[in-house]
Amino acid sequence: xxxxxxxxxxxxxxxxxxxxxxxxxxxxxxxxxxxxxxxxxxxxxxxxxxxxxxxxxxxxxxxxxxxxxxxxxxxxxxxxxxxxxxxxxxxxxxxxxxxxxxxxxxxxxxxxxxxxxxxxxxxxxxxxxxxxxxxxxxxxxxxxxxxxxxxxxxxxxxxxxxxxxxxxxxxxxxxxxxxxxxxxxxxxxxxxxxxxxxxxxxxxxxxxxxxxxxxxxxxxxxxxxx
Length: 226
Fold this sequence. Notes:
Layout: H1 6-9, E1 17-18, H2 23-33, E2 37-41, E3 47-52, H3 53-66, H4 78-85, H5 89-92, E4 99-100, H6 106-116, E5 120-124, E6 130-135, H7 136-139, H8 147-162, E7 170-175, E8 178-187, H9 190-199, E9 206-217, E10 224-225
Parallel strand pairs: 1-2, 4-5, 8-9
Antiparallel strand pairs: 2-3, 5-6, 7-8, 9-10
Helix pairs in contact: 3-4
């Protein structure tokens, strides 16, 4: 099986700012490029942090509170107050930035996005230099695969290539990414493995094995035949 890598899905042209970029330059960059966050890079192009609209809005909220228009929020940490008072990217940014590697799979990137609660990942090389950006929308591209491509990969790579099953023993039907398996397996214990491997194929939405049967129930002592 061949999983799509982040390098195949990411956008390679990424706008960034240097650590000494002033507040207004950052705001202008976000507006001109219609993005909600930009990575902050050092002189070698290495990602050292990220500045988002939220980071900039802290200053607006801080200024309003300072004018007496709004009360200071209780429990505001010192680092948050320091960021609100910052005027350059290196003072406003959140660090470290959440990054991915070009060789990661879609599943690995999606898992990190979910754990970190972010909508995008900056992609860096082995020396942490910025090489691209990947978003949730980019990751969803794998679900645009044609059903015939998904079916071919399941039949040739999963069933015949990895599990060494006779192609004629199973029928694979794929509609809108939903996989329906029909046929007979040598052992009942193989069903969960077949399900899991089919589910990992890029573009698969769901897998149904309710119409799979088996010759021997190896999950019971004695190996009862079906």
